[in-house]
Design brief:
CATH topology of the largest domain: Transposase Inhibitor Protein From Tn5, Chain A, domain 1
Oligomer: single chain
CATH architecture of the largest domain: Alpha-Beta Complex
Number of helices: 16
Number of domains: 2
Largest sheet: 9 strands, mixed
Mean pLDDT: 80
CATH superfamily of the largest domain: Transposase Inhibitor Protein From Tn5, Chain A, domain 1
Low-confidence stretches: 1-22, 389-401, 441-448
Structural class: alpha+beta
Shape: globular
Length: 448
């Protein structure tokens, strides 16, 4: 029986162009490099060696609805001659692997593919966004101590499950993740996002929500020499210094650091020059945008007002990651905080691999990436992994030959930008009293 990596390579060689591209998104030699770079390579023969453990973590992300033991069985992740594998061996293999190889692979894939544009952009600038979200983890004592919980109506730390906070830098043209950072729930999005600014490419425009409004963030991000610009919704209490009124009705302004920012960052830049664009949508409240794009003739106010809403692409990406990929599962699988990062890096990596294949299908059919269905692509990749690897090898070419005839199910209709969805409360909160249990309560005595 050949190894899983060898089977992967052989299937890539057998398949048509779409499968070749999927294999090219993460060559098997990258796994070996990740294990060597992070010191996780197996030094002796094991029933579930390190390279198979990598595929196990990827399989866990791809098949959220299946038990981990089933993932091992369906993908044949054991050495030849091994008929059974104890559940403890799976856990031990994950502990030996650690999170570092999965993070290394995520960054390798992101560095290779995520900064490749989707054919759009804005006036020669690639579009990116930074935003944050939260993910639930298993409600164990260890996870509770490590990640913490958000507050609720009964006070701080009283939510149902521990949560981690995640911040991502996303390519808005392709929805591929460029970088990510996560930590305990108590860590703010500002703190997490600070590590992402260095990953923003040159010649780009990054769109931020007003939750990221902060002079220190702007100063670390905005870089005239690298042609990096930002577009952000301003808070109501922001009062920048007005320099002059521009011909299009926007204002050229100056942002200055606060005394607190100066004290904590003595070398912080003295000022940030930008434009303020006031706007009001029909039936909406007035708002203001701040941008470092100063030319009102090239970067018109109407263009930037409409462009700001491209920020919602990152929200759609989070929905794909948290809802579609995870089949609406409420929490990550791992019960130990040291395994949660491994699982999450695997989830982010598989998300990028699916997104990468969608981008290439879109290019083949000269469609924008947003016209390819994430759900259909994910279902197809899941089906291919199960039927092709586990089935008779002679049926693989037949299975792959049906791909092109089925591509129409991947295509989405064009978006209708005029649609509006007012918010409505559909389901009220339950009237039942909550029962959270008592954490760390002593076990009951065993009756004789």
């Amino acid at each position: 029986m050949e190894s899983f990596s060898d089977a992967f390579e052989s299937l890539v060689n057998m398949g048509p162009e779409t499968i070749e591209r999927f294999g090219a998104s993460m060559p098997s030699e990258w796994i070996e490099e990740a294990l060597e770079a992070t010191g996780s390579a197996s030094m002796r023969r094991r029933k579930l060696p390190a390279d198979q453990a990598v595929w196990l973590v990827l399989g866990m992300a791809l098949y959220e609805d299946r038990a981990i033991r089933d993932v091992v069985d369906h993908l044949s992740l054991v050495l030849p001659g091994v008929e059974s594998l104890a559940p403890s061996a799976i856990t031990q293999a994950r502990h030996r692997l650690g999170p570092e190889p999965m993070e290394w692979l995520f960054r390798r894939v992101a560095d290779t593919w995520s900064n490749v544009g989707g054919g759009g952009g804005y006036k020669g600038l690639a579009l990116y966004a930074v935003d944050g979200t939260c993910l639930r983890v298993q409600d164990t004592d260890e996870n509770f101590e490590h990640f913490g919980k958000p507050g609720s109506r009964n006070g701080s730390g009283d939510a149902g499950y521990p949560q981690l906070r995640l911040a991502c830098l996303m390519n808005l043209e392709t929805r591929l993740l460029v970088d990510a950072c996560f930590g305990a729930y108590a860590k703010s999005e500002h703190e997490l996002a600070a590590s992402l600014w260095a990953s923003v490419p040159n010649k780009s425009l990054t769109i931020l929500d007003r939750g990221f409004v902060d002079y220190v963030n702007f100063a670390a991000f905005a870089d005239d020499s690298r042609d990096r610009h930002l577009l952000v919704r301003m808070r109501e209490n922001m009062k920048p210094q007005e320099i002059e009124a521009l011909p299009d009705g926007t204002l050229k302004v100056r942002l200055l650091p606060s005394s607190t920012a100066r004290a904590s960052n003595p070398n912080i830049r003295e000022e940030i020059i930008g434009r303020v664009i006031a706007y009001q949508h029909p039936d909406g409240a007035p708002g203001r945008l701040f941008t470092t794009l100063l030319d009102p003739a090239k970067f018109t106010a109407n263009d930037l007002i409409e462009l700001y809403h491209a920020r919602w692409e990152v929200e759609l990406g989070f929905e794909e990651l948290k809802t579609n990929m995870r089949d609406r599962t409420e929490w990550l699988r791992s019960k130990k905080p040291e395994l949660v990062p491994q699982e999450l890096w695997g989830l982010l990596l598989v998300y990028n691999l699916v997104r990468r294949e969608m981008l290439l299908v879109a290019r083949t059919h000269t469609l924008p990436p947003q016209r390819i269905s994430f759900v259909s692509s994910l279902m197809w990749i899941r089906s291919f992994w199960l039927t092709s690897w586990r089935g008779n090898p002679t049926n693989v070419p037949k299975h792959l030959g049906n791909v092109h005839s089925q591509l129409r199910v991947f295509f989405l209709p064009e978006r209708r930008s005029e649609r509006r969805y007012p918010r409505h409360v559909k389901i009220k909160m339950s009237n039942y009293a909550r029962n959270r249990g008592t954490r760390g309560s002593p076990k009951p005595d065993v009756l004789n």
